[in-house]
């Protein structure tokens, strides 16, 4: 058995591949692209392995590289238990892109909608929405990112008084009973 991966032994980040001796002898090339991505080429095939951050704040369908601002946003989302909605649905690339450069050469996903993690199961859909009216009207190189959420609001039922009290009020029985109680208490007072 052979294990190849990051050599700094820090125990943080890194990607490793555990393989049999036979697979290790077939290994032609190994590249550590970053601390979260590796590339291994074997006789006959190539394998790319990408490790995404282990967090519940983002889904698996985001695009682009995580820059320092992205890492800050991720830390913020983890700290306040938020979830990035437009990374949890699988769409074609053009539905995930939220920004394109003026020369239309670079595309990225840099606009996000964050919600409380407790509402994560209520999100029905979230993706970028391209439209000519957005870019021409406002002169922006960003696209709109709507989110569709199912909200079930619970209604509190009005508390009704017990039926016996309703009976007393309806037929004037409460006055008759209270008068009898007063009379009985006066009778006991003098006897």
TrEMBL record:
Q: Superkingdom, according to UniProt?
A: Eukaryota
Q: Mind telling me which InterPro entries this protein's record contains?
A: Endo/exonu/phosph_ase_sf (IPR036691)
| Protein name according to UniProt | Endo/exonuclease/phosphatase domain-containing protein
């Amino acid at each position: 058995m052979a294990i190849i991966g990051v050599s700094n032994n820090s125990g943080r980040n890194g990607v490793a591949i555990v393989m049999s001796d036979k697979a290790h002898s077939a290994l032609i090339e190994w590249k550590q692209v970053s601390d979260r991505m590796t590339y291994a080429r074997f006789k006959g095939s190539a394998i790319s392995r990408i490790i995404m951050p282990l967090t519940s704040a983002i889904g698996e369908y985001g695009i682009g590289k995580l820059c320092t601002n992205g890492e800050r946003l991720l830390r913020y989302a983890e700290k306040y238990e938020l979830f990035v909605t437009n990374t949890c649905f699988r769409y074609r690339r053009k539905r995930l892109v939220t920004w394109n450069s003026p020369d239309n050469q670079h595309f990225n996903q840099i606009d996000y909608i964050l919600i409380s993690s407790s509402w994560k199961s209520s999100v029905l859909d979230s993706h970028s929405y391209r439209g000519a009216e957005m870019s021409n009207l406002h002169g922006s190189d960003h696209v709109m990112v709507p989110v569709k959420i199912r909200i079930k609001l619970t209604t509190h039922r009005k508390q009704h008084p017990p039926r016996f009290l309703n009976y007393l009020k309806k037929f004037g029985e409460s006055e008759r009973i209270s008068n009898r109680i007063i009379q009985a208490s006066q009778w006991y007072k003098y006897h």
